Task: structure prediction
Amino acid sequence: MNTKLHAVTDARGRQIRFLMAAGQVSDDTGARALLRSLPTADRLLGDRGYAADWLREALVDEQMTPCIPGRKRRDKLVEYDKRRYRKPNRIEFMFGR
Result:
């Protein structure tokens, strides 16, 4: 059995919310659980595992800009701020990678 860790951090990489889920649980499910308690922010960065259209729409509804690249096999290209996404990934640093 393995686990997945989902986290919301601030701009400095400090943990705000944290969720541990079973390894077979999709990233969508983790995002849905954390979405209810997101703090006010201008944007949300996430990896391709969080590239669901419903999540992008929910973030826009909350006046947040999604900075999430689309999945590689996606038919329609998704725009995101590549410069911000490539900045030192503070979330990965928070996990100690």
